[in-house]
Model the fold of this input.
Amino acid sequence: MARQIVFTPKAPKPPLTYSQAVKAAGLVFVSGTAPQDPETGTINGTTIQEQTRQCLANVTAILAEAGSSLDKIVSATVVLAEEDDFAGMNEEWLRWFPSDPPARQGAKLPVKVPGLKISIAVIAEA
Done:
């Protein structure tokens, strides 16, 4: 399988420095995805639950474009601006992954972006 760039207008347009996702070796590698509204590019939501929901909706759209889905995610990286948002993120996460969740790791955002609380990257089976 050749390396294939994945793009959908149903998720936020990425900057020129990276792609929404890359499909290769039977996997889909989704870049860190912010809680941006795909049409306006603005951050959607003020709570960690709302922003987690928007991130996962964006990830869902990217995976669908690549021929994959949330249930095929094998690994996720959740990057939070504040450690205090971990419990609220988990609350929303469990709504999307009520059983058999993917492997997951966490990190802290290295830069402050006004209003941004979370970014989510995933690797899924193609």
In short: The helical segments are 48-65, 86-96. The two ends are 11 Å apart (CA to CA). The longest strand covers residues 73-80. Residues 4-125 form a domain with the 60s Ribosomal Protein L30; Chain: A; fold (CATH 3.30.1330.40).
